[in-house]
# Entry
Amino acid sequence: MEITNVSEYEEIARRKLPKMVFDYYASGAEDQWTLRENRRAFERILFRPRILIDVSRIDITTTILGFKISMPIMVAPTAMQKMAHPDGEYATARASSAAGTIMTLSSWATSSVEEVASTGPGIRFFQLYVYKDRNVVAQLVRRAERAGFKAIALTVDTPRLGRREADIKNRFTLPPFLTLKNFEGLDLGKMDQSNDSGLASYVAGQIDRSLSWKDVKWLQTITHMPILVKGVMTAEDTRLAIQAGAAGIIVSNHGARQLDYVPATISCLEEVVKAAQGRVPVFLDGGVRRGTDVFKALALGASGVFIGRPVLFSLAAEGEAGVRKVLEMLRDEFELTMALNGCCSLKDINRNHIVTEGDMIRTASRL
# Structure
């Protein structure tokens, strides 16, 4: 079957993967309202295309934290990729590098920072969970820096793991032949079987619930890498992140896996962008499945987007070739969306190219 869009990989992954693994990747928290809303909210944003503009040449390259990349579409951190495919993070690293874009490696990867670096050149960020033992954190950050990683994406929305009922039902745990590679040798790489979700028990035991803004400042004392704060959804926290020295913000609801009934990330984006006032770049993850979604995010002020589940599902389906194909499809769709909206470069994309639900309500009330 010819794959014509990113979403088709999900069904292939569902058929190929063990139920416990597919459910872990695919599910959201509790009622999964936010999981559905992350997609639906994109569907409610419409275009206002401009016509008769010469779009014979389109440039979609951009610069992120000083690094030139081929497109404003990057790879989000997703845990335990070797459950999807034996090559796991190696395949994702090679595919991202071939596409000329950034890969973010999860703290909970099944390949270490050194192993990912060994796949060859590429711009890579490291996603960080802060463990109770700060020596572990400092060691990990130093290893990422030595391995040539360029930025830290600090996840701030996980003092406790969200209630993911599929994982509880399946008694999710990491398959015995895999470990959390970055913590091997620190006695933190194993996840024990538990009565509910093995990951939830692991997080309760290891992750620091006391994490606060002062820790964002502390991280800056142990690394030269810029720090992106991942998990911001409000103007208030945007201002605090900038005060704390964040180099950028990722508007994220953790793929709808943490707190259910928070808005879709695309619905929070404009508020965050306005609060940032151009002082730092703002990125978005959550629900991006089409090039049209990328355009909508940029029109609302994002500097780029990160994709997570499409990478996992395509990895499960076709390994490295699948991840390459997903990045290529999104790239092609995005370029087409730009052409049909009358945009030749990213700086041409602006708020006038879209109409949101809020705009429609405001227009109606003026009438």
Summary: The two ends are 50 Å apart (CA to CA). The chain is about 40% helix and 10% strand.
